Amino acid sequence: MRLRALLLMAPALLLLLAVFAWPMLEYAWLSLHAQSVFTGLEPVPVGLANWQRLLGDGRFWQDAGQTLRFAGVSVGLELVLGLGIALLLHQNWRGRGVVRSLSLLPWALPNTVMALGWRWIFDDPNGPINALLGGLGLATLPFLASPQLAWIATVVADVWKTTPFVALLLLAGLQMIPADLYDAFALEGGTPWQALRRITLPLLRPYIFIVLLFRLAQALGVFDLIAVLTGGGPASSTESLAVYAYLNAMRFLDFGYSATVMLGMFLLLLAGSALLLLLPRGQEVRS
Amino acid sequence: MTLGRRRSLWALALGLALAAALLLWPLAWARRPVTVRVLMPAPFADATAAMVADFNRSPRGVRIEVTRGPFETEAVSDLAISSLLLGDSPYDLLLMDVTWTAKYAAAGWLQPLDPWLGPEALAPLVPGARAGNRIDGQLWRLPLLADVGLLYWRTDLMEAPPRTPDELVTRSRQLQGQGRVPWGYLWQGRQYEGLSCVFLEVVHGFGGGWSTDEGEGMGLARPAAAAAAGWLRLLVSEGITPEAVANYAEPQSLQSFRRGEAAFLRSWPYAWQELQGEGSAVAGKVGITTMVAEPGLPHAATLGSWGFSLLAGSAHPEEAITVLRTLTGADSQRQLVRDWGYTPTLAALFEDPDLVKLRPQLPLLRQALNAAVVRPLSPGYAQLSDILQRELSAVITGGESAGPAMEEAARASRQLLQASGREAAA
Amino acid sequence: MTDPGMTTTTSAPSLRLDNLTRRIGGRAIIDGVDLAVAPGECLALLGPSGCGKSSVLRLIAGLDTPDAGRILLEGDDITRKPPQRRQVALVFQSYALYPHLNVSRNLSLGMEIRGVPAQEREREVTSVLAMLQLTELAQRLPAELSGGQRQRVALARALLRHPRVFLLDEPMSNLDAQLREELRPQLRSILCAGSAPVIYVTHDQQEAMGIADRIAVLSNGRVQQCGTPKDLYLTPANMFVASFIGRPQINLLPQEDGTVLGIRPEHLVATDDSGIPVRVLNREWHGASQQLLVSSPQGDLRWTCDGAQPIGEGLRLGWDRRHEHHFLKTTGARC
């Protein structure tokens, strides 16, 4: 029985191994080597030197913190807004179909195009937001030139782009909840707010979990949005780990350290996912 | 990712394929015109399009095929590197920025040009344009166009340009106070390569430099570096430069100056054309000079130039050198100056009366080129520059004060050099 | 099951529907329905699917609002009241159990949101679990229950609402035929124990007759007839009711005078020579009884007779005049 199960799973396992484990092993091997422009791009074994450097690399930890903050805040906002939009789209109202399709537009836009759009929107002083502020007689804001504002700009752009995706997934979840449940709950005296807390949210939990997993993995690996919108600046305040790994590989030609950064990022992601998996989800646990 | 092994495998495969092809179709190969593939940033691909077409019309048995790369400098590098990392590059020639040369040479992606061009290849160039091509005694690149950092000033607002940092600040305050311009001075403050260029000129103006005898990047530990960074911060905190400068690259600063929003602009020679063009609020009201410097110190101009390198994997180096010679030749450079307003590298062209008549700024540009300063010629330049940009950006946005930030940049640079020294030794 | 403190007068109807009308897209799906249900009475709403019977339930529950007419519950006009404040219980066809909560949480959730103290909640849940033999299943999730068990949980939840009226929407339709027959008396004894009236929607006339005190037959959004099962069987108000009540269906024989003669299959008897001559087309033998389809000069007839009845050549059928029903061909009304 167990052998058969193993045989049945073999193709999937092999595929996983090929697309996932193999590159990881390559990275692990590379992280134990210096392979940079200084070695003529030839790999030279250096033991744990890259890992030592990583632990003491303030920039890595700063970027890790920034990446985490970016992912946490944007995914959190996306979840709240996405749920709101999903609930709205789940209601019956005129023109809902059109809005449902339109709301997916941001999701369909390529990241780079979207980021260029936001770069223009946040431009100081010629972007529309600052034009509006100026028109109201207020001071313009250097959105992309201030470390305090620039990361908010990246979050806004990401939220704008991915909330529709979140909303769509949650809408799919909402549509799986039978309408009878809400009728039954109302007849028992439940208000719509209570229904949201007692029925909708618990039943959406598996969907919320999927959304969280998808989006956190995506947001923790954020690259093109930041590369185009801020380039990681100002003062590296918006730099993500993926951007840092990219810089090391493609700009500095330091492949040994880039692999170490990538692996470090992967290990952090793994730790994060493990935490997430510990959260209760799906059906209520029986006592 | 094991590049060496992969590359040799590819080379083997390619070699076998080539051998087979040569055995099977010797005649067909002999008759075919050789195609030389060139990757250029989009603006230069456009500017050389007519020349390339001319070249391809003449029957020489060599065809040029230009790949039009992206607009942004770093994006072109990314594209080239991606293809080089995969093994043999599809290109024979690459139009390179001055800062890439050391890195590409160290990576083993370039062929030295001396065997083809001889030891005197750089002799006809203006002295300023010679820098940054020869590394460790080998010539890796032949420049096509010179680029140099300039201070643009408004002739309608003043008689003569400021020559010292203090003068620039005083003049700006005065003009802003009179309400004649919203801003005094515009430059490139985004965390990118342009910021290093801006800084290099200023640090020289304060009597310092980026590198010293101790090594690349070690100039950042000197007081001049802190003074230069502090001055850039002062421009922002005093409102002479808008806060938004921390996100300005060349286009943003140029557009704002073009709308007449400032008295001074730091930019490259190509801005001249743009500022004189239609729709410019400052057409005919702009002068150019070199960067300000403390009294008695040299006015520096960051050297940026574009030149051709021969890629190591080129299958037709001889034909590629023919193309390189043609594209960097006097006729070609003349055309680029005349039709596109670019700055030549050949000394003779700066004295060509017809060209000077058409481009009266040429003598000034030559002067600036004589004051040219080069960014560190290190294979690790990208990383050195990144370290500097990061700290400078923090200073400009008020996150760090100039002194500690430059010390940190020097420390990080030193660490990098030490690590690279160890790696190179190993 | 009703509040001990609440007294109801037996004479006045507990629930009254007054000219209730609901239109959707210009079409009346409920068209002037008048009904009255007495305290403790079980009324079945019987009709084919799409006749509007479930819509009537939703209107009473407050899940939908009528376009005209009134709903009076214990003299109180609840037509516009939100469902939360009507104090009615509805057992859904799907049972609508909360899939993420176990049986006892399913039962206590309603009380919890209504602010019933925890102790009282527990007491009530325990007692209703015991009453419906669900105690063993208290910790199970709905997905782990059989259809019959789910129905009992839904019923228990309805009981805990202490409703002023019980509404049941095809509560048996998800169960197999054998279970349905087993559960019918049980359901009846549970529901009819208190004084709250019961409205039971079904499309199954046998079920309606087995469980209800009175049956209202609905068709096209209108009440065709409302009465005891016996009334409906013996004096159907029109051809629709006559064919809907009684299985096999009544034989309807058009007459030359513009009327239709109705005679139920079980009222046909074999005669010697006075009856009409028939020929057997089909025969189903069920043991105690048998059902035949025969052709006659007046058309094909359904005939139900004793299983022991011999069927031979030259068969003739007749009936007692008392069993005849007459309807107008035009309106279908009894005449």
Description:
The complex is a heterotrimer of chains A (287), B (426) and C (335). Chain A is mainly α. Chain A has helices at residues 2-31, 49-55, 58-90, 96-102, 105-108, 111-121, 128-135, 147-175, 179-187, 192-220, 224-229, 241-251, 255-278; strands at 33-34, 44-45. Chain A is built from 13 helices and two strands; from the N terminus they run H-E-E-H-H-H-H-H-H-H-H-H-H-H-H. Chain A has a two-stranded antiparallel ribbon with strand order 1-2. The radius of gyration of chain A is 23 Å and the shape is flat. With 426 residues, chain B is an alpha/beta fold. Chain B has two domains: 20-146 and 305-373, Periplasmic binding protein-like II (D-Maltodextrin-Binding Protein, domain 2), CATH 3.40.190; 148-302 and 376-425, Periplasmic binding protein-like II (D-Maltodextrin-Binding Protein, domain 2, 3-Layer(aba) Sandwich), CATH 3.40.190.10. In chain B, strands 1, 2, 3, 4, 7, 12 and 13 form a seven-stranded mixed β-sheet that branches. A four-stranded mixed β-sheet of chain B has the order 9-10-8-11. Chain B has a two-stranded antiparallel sheet with strand order 5-6. Chain C contains eight helices and 19 strands. Chains in contact: A-B, A-C. Chain A binds chain B through residues 26-27, 30, 34-44, 46, 53, 59, 123-125, 140, 142, 144-147, 150, 230-237, 247, 250-255, 259, and chain B through 1-4, 74, 77-78, 81-82, 103, 106-108, 189-192, 242-248, 252, 379-380, 382-383, 386, 389-390, 393-394, 396-397, 399-400, 419-421, 423-424, 426.
Features:
heterotrimer; B: 426 residues; alpha/beta; D-Maltodextrin-Binding Protein, domain 2; 2 domains; 7-stranded mixed beta sheet; 4-stranded mixed beta sheet; 49% helix; 15% strand; globular; C: 335 residues; alpha+beta; Rossmann fold; OB fold (Dihydrolipoamide Acetyltransferase, E2P); 6-stranded mixed beta sheet; 4-stranded antiparallel beta sheet; 8 helices; 19 strands; disordered N terminus
